[in-house]
Amino acid sequence: MTNSVEETATRIWTDVLRPAPGQESAGFIALGGQSVSAVRIAARVESELGVELDLRVLFEDPDLEAFRRAVVQAVEAAAESRAA
């Protein structure tokens, strides 16, 4: 499951932020991330993965790897709460 979640997170990140070649590891802000793109990313995460992503995650200026970790953690936390 983790790989498919990471792939989905990567696709969402690149679809919304459209990093130029060589900038894939840049942070959210460096890629032009702002409130509108943060809301678009969070909405896509909820729509495609069924979990809410706290917008603060994006404003902490993550790079792609940190964003993927945050999404995986959100998915795992949601799965644990559903199992309880």
From TrEMBL:
SUPFAM superfamilies: ACP-like. Residues 1-75 form the Carrier domain. Pfam families: PP-binding. This is Predicted protein. It comes from Streptomyces viridosporus (strain ATCC 14672 / DSM 40746 / JCM 4963 / KCTC 9882 / NRRL B-12104 / FH 1290). The lineage of its organism: Bacteria, Bacillati, Actinomycetota, Actinomycetes, Kitasatosporales.
